């Protein structure tokens, strides 16, 4: 494992800087994280976080949209951004010596973008096309439908891009208000990994991010109710039926997360996994099947996605539920558990070769844990996961009346009501009735002690 040094500094205005120095690398990946995403929006402003992420690339006081792109690309680097349910991130990957340039551009975008009115009008159309594209991609759209079934009526279950009506109603004033409310240093994090000096980066951040912390605090969003899950069908005449099914789980900081990770890999962590073998290899019902999992500051979920012929939807769903139920009441062999842990160790080590994945890792740990968990500590926690831990967590999580399910395809709406929830429970063994022993003659029977009335 590559040697690295992690450092953290909190500036007087509340801005956090976390770095992982890796002197043997040529590159640096740096991200500006803002604690705002789609769950911080209301029905009228749905999609505004994602809209703002688009708009900051349009212009700053010193750069046009083309100059923003060209300045990083001429260095051989990359510049991009994403919006999630709880965060917005602007990130760049460059050669180590070009880190000052990348940081200055990211600061320019995230704190000084001008949000031109003419560009707002054009970007409405662009984002509307992005939403249409997602709707026309069933293996993508079904995940949004699943979130809506997992947390119905709550902002965390809403599509990150919003809807076409809310996007078309977004104004420059809306974007300015959103940025003023959330893009503040006490809600921002600079995370960087690669060939860098922490002290030099902190010095650069102080010069580039000259923003004061506004008064007051941003209220935390309401916690979603994991007991309000639903199951629904979105009818569409397509060749396959796309299915997401799963259960609400716990927040990122919950110590059971390592057991959940092991469960996820037992279910679908590759071609040797239970779901791949049972649903695809043995039954031939699907081409694609894999686990879906995420966790947030106060909620999470674990589930499965697959796509199949409409006539196989119920059979495949019941097989998936059966495999999930087996983790709660079935046997988990020592060899299988060791193999999964070995696989997770390899996945972790391979991921650590990328400065981008390491930047995301240290950022998520800071945002959700307020601390850093080393790869060694993570593997130690995974090695401790026992078969009993898996059964306990699975029995807690995979409760029949907490199953959320989204089905997209040419199937009737009542189909989800036919899913066999009993597949999640321990089967009742049926067998021949046990014969009672023939009583012995009275003279040879032992007398029972007398009982008082």
- The percentage of residues in β strands lies in 15-25%
- Estimated helix fraction: 25-40%
The stretches of 5 or more residues where confidence is low (pLDDT under 50) are 431-453
* Subunit arrangement of the protein: single chain
Radius of gyration: 27 Å
Mean pLDDT: 92
How many strands in all? 11
Order of helices and strands: EEEHHEEHHHHHEHEEHHEEHHHHHE
Distance between the termini: 76 Å
Which outline best applies? globular
Write the layout of secondary structure elements.
Layout (H helix, E strand, L loop, with lengths): L4 E6 L5 E6 L5 E8 L13 H8 L9 H9 L4 E6 L4 E8 L3 H14 L4 H19 L2 H13 L13 H5 L3 H11 L5 E7 L3 H11 L22 E5 L5 E9 L7 H12 L5 H9 L3 E10 L4 E9 L4 H17 L4 H18 L3 H15 L5 H9 L3 H11 L6 E6 L44
Features:
453 residues, alpha+beta, 6-stranded mixed beta sheet, 11 strands, disordered C terminus
Polypeptide structure, described:
Helix 9 packs across helix 15 and helix 10 runs antiparallel to helix 11 (313-329). Strand 9 (286-295) and strand 10 (300-308) form a beta hairpin. The model is unreliable at 431-453 (pLDDT under 50). The strands form two sheets. The protein has a six-stranded mixed beta sheet with strand order 1-2-6-3-5-4, sandwiched between helices. It has 453 residues and is α+β, with helices and mostly antiparallel strands. Helices cover 40% and strands 18% of the residues. The chain has 15 helices and eleven strands.
């Amino acid at each position: 494992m590559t040697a690295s040094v992690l450092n953290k500094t909190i500036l007087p205005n509340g801005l956090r800087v976390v770095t992982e120095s890796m002197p043997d690398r040529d590159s640096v990946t740096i991200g500006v994280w803002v604690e705002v995403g789609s769950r911080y929006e209301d029905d009228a402003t749905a999609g505004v976080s994602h809209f703002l992420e688009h708009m900051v690339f349009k212009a700053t006081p010193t750069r046009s949209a083309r100059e923003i792109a060209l300045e990083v690309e001429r260095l051989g680097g990359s510049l991009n951004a994403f919006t999630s349910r709880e965060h917005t991130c602007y990130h760049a990957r460059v050669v180590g010596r070009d880190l000052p340039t990348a940081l200055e551009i990211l600061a320019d975008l995230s704190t000084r973008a001008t949000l031109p009115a003419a560009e707002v009008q054009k970007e409405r159309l662009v984002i509307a096309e992005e939403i249409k594209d997602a709707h026309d991609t069933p293996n993508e759209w079904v995940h949004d439908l699943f979130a809506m079934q997992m947390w119905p009526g709550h902002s965390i279950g809403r599509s990150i891009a919003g809807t076409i009506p809310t996007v078309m109603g977004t104004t420059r004033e809306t974007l300015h208000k959103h940025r003023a409310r959330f893009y503040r240093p006490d809600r921002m994090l600079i995370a960087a990994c690669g060939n860098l000096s922490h002290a030099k980066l902190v010095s650069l951040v102080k010069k580039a991010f000259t923003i004061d912390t506004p008064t007051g605090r941003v209220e935390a969003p309401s916690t979603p109710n994991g007991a309000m899950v639903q199951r629904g069908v979105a009818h569409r005449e397509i060749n396959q039926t796309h299915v997401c099914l799963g259960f609400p789980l716990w927040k990122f900081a919950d110590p059971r997360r390592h057991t959940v990770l092991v469960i996820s890999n037992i279910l679908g962590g590759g071609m040797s996994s239970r779901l791949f073998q049972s649903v695809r290899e043995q039954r031939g019902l699907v081409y694609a099947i894999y686990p879906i999992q995420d966790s947030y500051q106060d909620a999470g979920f674990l589930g499965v996605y697959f796509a199949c012929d409409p006539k196989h939807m119920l059979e495949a769903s019941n097989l998936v539920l059966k495999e999930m139920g087996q983790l709660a009441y079935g046997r988990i062999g020592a060899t299988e558990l060791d193999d999964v842990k070995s696989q997770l160790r390899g996945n972790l080590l391979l991921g650590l070769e990328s400065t981008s994945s390491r930047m995301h890792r240290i950022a998520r740990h800071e945002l959700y844990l307020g601390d850093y968990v080393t790869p060694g500590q993570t593997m130690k926690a995974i090695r401790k996961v026992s078969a009993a831990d898996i059964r306990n967590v699975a029995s807690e999580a995979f409760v029949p009346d907490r199953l959320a399910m989204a089905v997209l395809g040419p199937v009737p709406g009542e189909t989800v009501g036919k899913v066999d929830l009993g597949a999640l429970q321990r089967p009742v063994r049926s067998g021949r009735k046990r014969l009672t022993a023939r009583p012995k003659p009275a003279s040879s029977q032992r007398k029972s002690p007398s009982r008082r009335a």
